[in-house]
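Example record for the data management plan.
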Amino acid sequence: MNHNGKSKSHGKNDIRTTENLEDVLYHIVGADLSALPGIRSNAILQIISEVGTGMSKFPDAHHFASYLGFVPRNKITGGHVISSKTDRIKSSAAQAFRKLIPSISQTKTALGAFYRRLAARIGKAQAIIATCRKLAILFYNTIAYGKAYVEQGELMYKQKQEDWERQKLAKLAKKYNVTIVNNNVKQ
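Corresponding structural encoding:
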């Protein structure tokens, strides 16, 4: 049982101890990392074994994501981006985050909806990296600031996305002096 009162299923490769491993990790880290979507005790152990529990070596969450290789390196020439590939980093922590994505993609969580939306738009490979980056930032914030992760759910994520798209459309309509009435465009 984790700290939010929900029971979690255990995979066949999960480490078994006489004590509840999630409780031990909570004691070590000082935060409930098992509340993050798709993350299990084995992955938490693999990640903290490489990066540690003190996040002071990373100025912020974006530096942590960059350390893991989840941030694109934009090559810009003449004001144009000619390449934006991520670094190839052979880190066990980065591999642990990547291994979580297939299970996250199947969930009805906000992160699962984020992955599916990006996979349809930009492809699975880039969606995996973007989702890993988002998960790494959640991981960092949970450890560094003790912020408890609160799952929004897929429906809330989709609602926020639709609201953002409506705001963007209204801004464009105002810019081009167009009126939008019940899905019809009038000039």
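Summary line stored alongside the record: Residues 155-187 form one domain.
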